[in-house]
From TrEMBL:
Lineage start: Bacteria, Bacillati, Bacillota, Bacilli, Bacillales
Segments forming domain HTH tetR-type: 13-73
Key word Magnesium present: no
Gene3D superfamilies the record matches: Tetracycline Repressor, domain 2
Cross-referenced PROSITE patterns: HTH_TETR_2 (PS50977)
Name assigned to this protein: HTH tetR-type domain-containing protein
Keywords, sorted A to Z: DNA-binding, Transcription, Transcription regulation
GO MF terms held by the record: DNA-binding transcription factor activity; transcription cis-regulatory region binding
Keyword Zinc-finger: no
Binding region for DNA: 36-55
PANTHER family (UniProt xref): HTH-TYPE TRANSCRIPTIONAL REGULATOR BETI, HTH-TYPE TRANSCRIPTIONAL REGULATOR RUTR
Pfam families xrefs: TetR_N
């Protein structure tokens, strides 16, 4: 019996996800320049040609992963803003969610993809344009309004809100990289990071 249109779409979506999952692992280990489509195919247990059926190039795959990484960072901030409580309580909630996700290897690897995207000259032009676009929502720019609100409520220190947001994400990225290098590394309590805002 032939598959329905919905079944075909589900298979296509799952295979695309499998390729992206495999590519994330390979890009994280080998970097953008050294990765080949054949490496991604091998990691995904798919044929070289089948990967090309879903994606035109490794650059397209990398760009999709950068978009996913950026979106996931912004989504967690947007979710935190829906939580009850003060701005500082919302930042603490967000920090706890991020730390909890550290146990999911894929989430941590997205941090590496964003670091590659913003530091490597070899990334696709589309990624460079995305990151420099005025419409691009960076996690730092999305966190700043929450910090400003906390400062207006006198619960966050009166320092430059952009500098505070940058320091916050530097701390988070550092912990993510440390966790990749040392999987057994203890993740601090969210309160430790929150102290920087007080």
């Amino acid at each position: 019996m032939p598959r329905s249109r919905e079944q075909n779409l589900e298979i296509r979506n799952q295979r695309s996800e499998d390729i992206l999952h495999a590519a994330l692992n390979v890009f994280s280990r080998r970097g953008m320049v050294a990765t080949k489509i054949s490496d991604i195919a091998k990691e995904a247990h798919l044929s070289h040609g089948l990967v090309y059926h879903y994606f035109a190039s490794k650059e397209e795959i990398f760009t999709r992963l950068v978009r996913r990484a950026a979106d996931s960072s912004v989504q967690i901030i947007e979710q935190s803003q829906l939580q009850a409580g003060t701005p500082l309580a919302k930042i603490k909630w967000m920090t706890e969610q991020i730390f909890q996700s550290f146990s999911e290897g894929q989430y941590i690897l997205l941090f590496l993809i964003m670091i590659q995207a913003s530091t490597s000259d070899a990334v696709p032009d589309e990624v460079k344009q995305l990151l420099s676009s005025p419409e691009f929502k960076s996690p730092v720019s999305c966190l700043v309004p929450l910090i400003v609100e906390g400062q207006q409520r006198q619960e966050i220190i009166q320092q430059d809100p952009v500098q505070l947001a940058v320091a916050y994400y530097a701390f988070i990225q550092g912990l993510a990289i440390n966790k990749l290098q040392w999987p057994q590394a203890p993740v601090p309590d969210a309160e430790l990071i929150i102290k920087m805002f007080k």
